[in-house]
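Researcher: Before we compare anything, I want clean individual predictions. No alignment, no superposition, just each chain on its own. First chain goes here; please echo the sequence and then give the structure tokens.
Model: Echoing the first chain and its structure:
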Amino acid sequence: MTRTTFRNASLADIDALVALENRCFRDDRISRRSFRRFIDMPRDRLVLAEQGGELAGYSLVLMKANTRLARIYSIAVAPERRGEGLGEALVRESERQAADVGRILMRLEVRTDNHGAIALYERLGYRQFGTLRDYYEDHGDALRFERRILFYEPSAEFPEVPYYPQTTDFTCGPASLLMAMAAVAHDQSLTTLEELRIWREATTIFMLAGHGGCGPHGLALAAWNRGYNATAWISQEGPLFRETVRNDDKKRVLELVHEGFLHDIGQTGIELHHDPLTLEEIERALREGQVPVILISTWQLNRSRVPHWVTVCAVDEQFVYLHDPEVDVEEGETIADNQYLPVDRRIFDRMSRYGRNQPLQAAVIVGPKRTGDARISGTSA
């Protein structure tokens, strides 16, 4: 098989690109003028595959400004080169170049009747997340696919954080805490039973609808009761999430639970700070071998304003890396999608504030295990 080389297109390649476009497509062809514009756009990538000095295929990757998304707008392989794996190689090279400039997700569209391409993308790990009606010139529909392409390589700078997915809709806090504890003590069990035990200890009883979630006071106590050092950073005083319930009796329950948490914290060495936790302090904690568990608003992830707990695993110049314990299997997510999830530092700053008028910032930092301390009474499982 002839060796394939890749390079980015220049204006001298336009004649060959137009000729290949006309051979590969009858509709929705990219014009000479458009090829020129894409080549002149510094952000985008027009990747060429060459064999024996001849153009064998291309992939056009668009990089939208102010996002971490890349999109394969068009991909073409010369008819006589099909069946040699060149399409897959172009996708991989496109992903590599996009990841090199900090893009997190690669997206693409494919005709609903292009079964070969659909099978290729699914084999490469792409998942369908939508449909575009009447997308092509002939009024054909398109399926939308995406795949995460940027992954964090764990290093000795930060603790290695094992991943544990939550097993219920209401235990993101316990699952995140389990991951943090297992990162600083390798003998920490990661089991559903322990996840539910922590929820029983840390739940606020009521929150939004359904089962109550867990607050920072309860999670800090759960970590302390298991022998870990714990520090809680909470930007507001008083009962949290009170505004999420309308019933006065439920509000009173929230207040009593809060009073109980404060009483129990008073019997421990837990440091309680009524200040927001800065990203600089998060990074400092990680470098000291501690692992933060952060309350976020999921609006930046899925346009839902639900409080959600995640574990912070690492920080670099561009991203904050999270373990998100919620795996949406129905949407095609896998555990790999939610490990070391890179979030732009600016987006993380907005994400780590829950609520509109006086946003709540809450975090629990889990430190190494203490020696010689007994669990306090009244809160153990």
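Researcher: Okay. Second chain, same rules.
Model: Second chain and its structure:
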Amino acid sequence: MVDVLSQNEIDALLAALSSGEMEAEELKKDESQKKVRVYDFKRATRFSKDHLRSLTRIHENFARYLTTYFSTQLRTFVQINVVGVEQLPYDEFIRSIPKMTILNIFEAEPLEGRMVLEIHPNVAYAMLDRLLGGAGAAPAKINALTEIDTIIMEKMFSRALESLTEAWRTVVEIYPRLEALETNPQFMQIASPNDTIALISLSTKIGDTTGMVNLCIPHVVIEPIMPRLSVHHMFVTHKKTKTVEESDALQERVNKAKLTMVAELGHSEISVHEFLNLAVGDVISLDKPVDQGLHIRVGDKLKFIGSPGTVKGKVAVQVTEIVSEGVEEEHDE
């Protein structure tokens, strides 16, 4: 792999050559020497840069869906952004998170294996406080979750995981399902210590409280769909043509769809006092003459004009006119 210098490194190199701090001969000598790169077999590279870019795009959408979901649920200002996507050993991830944190362990069929959504305690407890009627402030001291706290968080984060379905839809249809909620990382073992994981870090702000949300995806879980994470695969659209059978089936379903049809006799306005004193036999005057056609609506759209009558002793309406598309409805003054 060829190392590419940044613009700042190029400027610094030119400045050193101009000032005499570095000689051109030394630079040539360095280039002639054999370069050795250190490779740590414990940090095996499983994800290419192309894969990491694709994961970044997917989870930028995930962050937007989460922002909308939590804003609606908590009824307060929520901002979630992707700050980094990297690969590292699973053991290093476990050592980097707090000893007391919120770990949502889940599966996502048809993928095999488990993943985890780690929520920093400040963020999780601020969400809990907001749901229970508080201002959404982080607690001064992190206490163990009560049974009620656990149930509330499981329901909230279980629904939050549904956003992954929408975010991953361009790659594969997945159906996340929360398996367990843990608070101690030592009790969570979803991969071997040296297994490579993709870690997606999301900065989260709820009101005045900030913290991190980390999504840990082991390489073995998404290895079967790795080819689909290429940029070429994600941006190539496949035009799907419907067969005759599919078109007929769609037409049949549309024909069976039920619609509400209403024939309006007219409108009237009365006072609350008059309404409360209505009795059997009272007559309410409508705003439409008897010789004027009735408005027949399909759903909330005016589609026909008709006249009232009876058929075999039952109330009926005869369609006398079809309302053309774009004809505005007239309102009596």
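Researcher: What stands out in the second chain?
Model: The chain has a mean pLDDT of 82. Additionally, Strands lie at 78-89, 102-109, 114-119, 175-182, 196-206, 209-218, 261-264, 294-298, 301-311, 314-322.
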